[in-house]
Amino acid sequence: MADVLIDQVEKTFYDKTKDTSFTVFKDIQAEIKSGEFVSLLGPSGCGKSTLLNIIAGLEEPTSGVVEVGGRRVTGPGPDRGVVFQESALMPWQTVLDNVMFGLKKKMNKEEAKERAEYFLKLVHLSKFIHSYPHELSGGMKQRVSIARTLALDPDILLMDEPFGALDEQTRSMLHKEVTYIWEETQKTVVFVTHNIRESILLSDRIVLMGTRPGRIVEVFDVPMERPRKTSSKEFGELEERIQQKLAKEIEKVMREELGDDYNSKKGALLYHTDRDMGNHI
Ligand SMILES: Nc1ncnc2c1ncn2[C@@H]1O[C@H](COP(=O)(O)OP(=O)(O)OP(=O)(O)O)[C@@H](O)[C@H]1O
């Protein structure tokens, strides 16, 4: 049985002030199996975050249904944990207290402490449990955020560009860490990214989304064993296949955004697979 079923989902936003509506995507159909690591990859604006928010229950689909574990999603629930690009830790609380916060409603203080310490150890932050968020680097804050979400034991981890704001070295370290956590906990992971390499390094499958209209362009299997090497032949070949598909999508966006200017800027739009696809002008 699919852990996440996305059935004919459409999302349209209505702008009251202009009395216009805008369809982000429609006819989105996908299944994610229990324990799978799936990335949602695509150019800026194709609706990756919107789709993730619909799975999280933070947004409602305009039509269609999302089921998690066989139950229709009607709002947020403890079966789904979300990690955003910004860690959103409480600055006045220590690392340990931040992770314990959600746990204290579910168990006594001692159990909550033990559980928080376990997950902080899993993300290699045992030495920093008494630190405050401002004393941590961006990568460490994201690890606290991951520990806080995992401690609540969701079946599914929804990650919205969790490493988007981090430097390359930190990002690379966290790729290893997330792979380790995923292998240890066997959670289902849905991971939003702009970055082709990141998606190949981490995922079992990559759902490539296109834009205008938003839709699924192709689903790529990533059969390589982990840990993956960006220098391997298979890695390079898959990267090239995805890049070619994506280039077409980006070109379409550029033509619409730049109009007549597009042809004069074309040479400047060479795209790199390890770069984000958002601000490409
Ligand atoms: N609450 C909202 N009201 C109106 N429009 C919205 C709302 N949320 C998102 N959008 C629009 O929907 C489209 C898709 O946004 P979304 O953030 O899901 O895309 P994305 O693929 O995640 O982009 P990025 O990679 O840049 O974060 C964008 O054009 C965005 O402006």
UniProtKB/TrEMBL annotation:
Domain of life of the source: Bacteria
Molecular function GO terms recorded: ATP binding; ATP hydrolysis activity
ABC transporter domain: residues covered: 4-236
Keywords, comma-separated and alphabetical: ATP-binding, Nucleotide-binding, Translocase, Transport
SMART domains found in the cross-reference section: AAA
Record-linked PANTHER family: ALIPHATIC SULFONATES IMPORT ATP-BINDING PROTEIN SSUB, TAURINE IMPORT ATP-BINDING PROTEIN-RELATED
Organism encoding this protein: Alteribacillus iranensis
InterPro entries per record: AAA+_ATPase, ABC_transporter-like_ATP-bd, ABC_transporter-like_CS, ABC_transporter_ATP-bind, P-loop_NTPase
The protein's name in its UniProt record: NitT/TauT family transport system ATP-binding protein
Pfam families to which the protein is assigned, alphabetical: ABC_tran
